[in-house]
Every structure is written in structure tokens, then in C-alpha cells.
Amino acid sequence: MGQPVREYLLTLCVTVAVTYLLTGPVRKFAIAAGAMPEIRARDVHREPTPRLGGIAMFGGLCAGLLVADHLRNLNGVFELSNEPRALLSGAALIWLVGVLDDKFEIDALIKLGAQMIAAGVMVIQGLTILWIPVPGIGTVALTQWQGNLLTVALVVITINAVNFVDGLDGLAAGMVCIAAAAFFLYSYRIWFGYGIEAAAPATLFAAILMGMCLGFLPHNMHPARIFMGDSGSMLIGLVLAAAAISITGQVDPDTMALFAGGERNAVHAMLPVFIPLLLPLTIIAIPVADLVLAIVRRTWKGQSPFAADRGHLHHRLLELGHSHSRAVLIMYFWSGLIAFGAVAYSVHSASMWIVLAIVGLSALGLVLLLLPRFTPRAPRWAEGLVPPRYRHRERAAEAAALDASGREPEPAGPIRVGVSGVNGATAVGPRSRFPDRRKAESTR
């Protein structure tokens, strides 16, 4: 078992390195190609930022698959299954459409059609749902058309869920990385815990997806130097959907029936184990909830479901008073709680401690939501180890200066220089030139 773990880590590290190293040149290419759209009303950032980060992520995907194909234990995934080729075909198509959209702004209906075609390409090559376990009934075999339609629907929903949540720096990449990590743990347990070879492709897809997100995150954290764009958000959404479809449609529940009493009783008794199989969207529950709320909100207003607005969950966190970084961390928290909570419950469903831990962490998350303006303060003995805004003395000095002068104190450090003026002269902020507004009025 140790050898496959090392090979997965090698594949993960190569994917991370390739994605990270490609993102810098891709950023320069995006700037040169003019893939820097103007600021829109729904955008949170205030400066034009290049897109096309999905190019680097696609390069990481290809590198991860190439390395895995040359490793002894992972090579069998390519020899015994056509799913890696199906994933690469669908990913290449959706990535190409995303690149064109980042540059030329393709219509939403055209992108939806492309998503369905990409899902159809994967279905044709064998990446489809064959059966689903239903509690109380047993394993339900799907007809070819039922499996194909369910597969296409799952791919389209997942792609758009990830695309909709891509609204803050580092949000989509971080949430998908958390989901991929939870899914990797679950699929790895299915493969080596139960000895089911059919779970090997999903395990590989999850490891590569983690590498794609981890390699891109350093460039995308606030303030972001580059956005993944639709070329990246649709790509990672498709890879996540492919992993979920692979383990849902290819793993036979009969091989996991640990309880006696027939297939029907086995499936019913192992309901917690089948939670990630029956409901793979629980891994991305937050993006899916945002997607459903957005569709309901826009349809209720008589708008198109694809019309952009500022009503997403991350926008509402900002309106509550949370900072950009704190809003992202809160979304990370809830995504990790739901994803890893579902996996932990599927492993030890009889443990009351897991339920209590999930309830306690949920209460902690609610408290964090209700304290948007809370600023922690470090103890006096640790003031030298934290930024000035967390120190008692610094905050007391700022408050005293504000009370004495009736205005905000001057920021410490060098004066911030603005954008050059028309004649090339440097424009200095009004506060640095005239600290007091009344002084500025007296000089006119």
C-alpha cells in the first residue's frame, strides 16, 4: 500500500509544480492577448486582472496524467480503463471553449451546449453511470439512456456550480481543492480498503485535481494576480464531476456488502457508506446551494438563470461586513465541514462523537458568521509577533490620536503614491498633501 501512496504523492507534486510554473508565463500571455476585461458591476476586484489561468491548470492536468501513465502501480488505470482518455477528451473540449470565452465572451447558451457536448464525449468513451444503489431497494441498473442523461446532467450541474462560486480571489480553487481532498480519501479507502479496482480512476482524478488547485492558488489568493476564468472553473468542475461519476457508476455495491441478509438489507444497512456514492454533490454542497439559489432568485425576478448579479453567497458575506479574506475562509470552513463530515460519517456512522463534532463545528461556523467585524487582539506578551492592527498599544494610540484631532491618524510608513498624472507628474493622495481638510480649504 505504501508504494501507491508514494506514486500518488509524486503525481500530485508534479501537477502542482507544472501548474505553478506555468501560471506566471500564462499571466504575461493573457496581458499581451488582451484577456483583461473591464470591471463589471458585479465584480469585487477594483483593478483589471488577466484571466486564462485555466491554461496553466490544463497543463498541470496533462502533466499529472502523463506521469501517472509511466508509474508502475498507476499504469494499470490506463491499461484496464478508458476513463482517463475520456476525461482528457472532455477536459480538452471544455477548456478550449473556456479559453475562447475568457477572450471573446461567448454567449451563455453556447457554453451550456459545449458543456453538454463535453459530457457526451466522455459518455461515448465509457465514463458513465451504470447503476445506483437505492436504500431499501438495492442496486438499480440504469438503461443506457438513463445513465447517459444522468451523467450529462451531473457534469453540467457540477461545472456551473463551480463556475458560479468563482467570485472571490482563491475561492473556487480552494473549495474544489478541499472537495478533491475529501473525495481522494474516500475513493482511496474504497480501492485499498475494499480491494475494488474500479475506484482507481476516481482516486487518480482526485489527486490530480488537488494538484491543479494547489499549484494555482498561490497566484490567485487575495489580491489575485491572475484569475482562472471560465477556462479554469469549467475545467476543474468537469474533473470533479468525472471523479464522482467514475466511483458512482463503476463501483458495484455487491462487492461492498459487509452485512448478511441479502442485497437489499446490505444496501440499507450500509447507507452511510453510500452517502458519497448516492449524493456526490454533497462534496460540493456549497457551490450547488449557491447555484440553486441563484437560479431561483433570477427566475423569480424574471431574469435569465444565466444573468449575472451580486446575490451569490460570497457577495452576501461581504455585505455583512466580512473582509475579502475572511469571507473566503468562511466558505472554506463550511466546504471542509460538509465534505470531510460526509466522508467521516460514511466510515464510522455509529460513532456519536462524529455527529457531535459536526454539530459543534457548525455552531462555531454560525458564530463566525455573526461576528463580521470582530478583530482578535493578541496578548501583550505576543504583541511583537503579530501585525500592528492586533496590538493593544497600537489600537489605543490610534484611538487617542483620533479623539485628540477629530480625524484619522496619519498612517505610519511611506506615503502611498498614486497613478501618474496627465503630464507625467506623480499624483499624491489628498491626505498626504493636506492632512487636515480645513487647512486645504484655507489655502484656496
In one word, what is the shape?
A: globular
Please, how many helices?
18
The order of strands across the largest sheet is 1-2
Q: How many β strands by DSSP?
A: 4
Structural class: mainly alpha
Overall mean pLDDT score?
A: 76
N- and C-termini, Cα separation: 78 Å
Q: How does this structure look, described?
A:
- The protein is mainly alpha-helical and 444 residues long.
- Helix content is 65%, strand content 3%.
- It is built from 18 helices and four strands.
- The strands form two sheets. Strands 1-2 form a two-stranded antiparallel ribbon.
- Strand 1 and strand 2 form a beta hairpin.
- Helix 6 runs antiparallel to helix 9 (229-250) and helix 7 (171-194) packs antiparallel against helix 8.
- The longest helix is centred in the first third of the chain and has 32 residues, at 2-33.
- Mean pLDDT is 76; it is low at 258-273 and 407-444.
Write the layout of secondary structure elements.
Blueprint: H1 2-33, H2 54-69, H3 75-80, H4 83-104, H5 108-124, E1 131-134, E2 138-141, H6 144-165, H7 171-194, H8 200-220, H9 229-250, H10 262-269, H11 271-278, H12 285-300, H13 313-320, H14 324-347, H15 352-370, H16 392-405, E3 417-420, E4 426-428, H17 430-433, H18 437-442
Antiparallel strand pairs: 1-2, 3-4
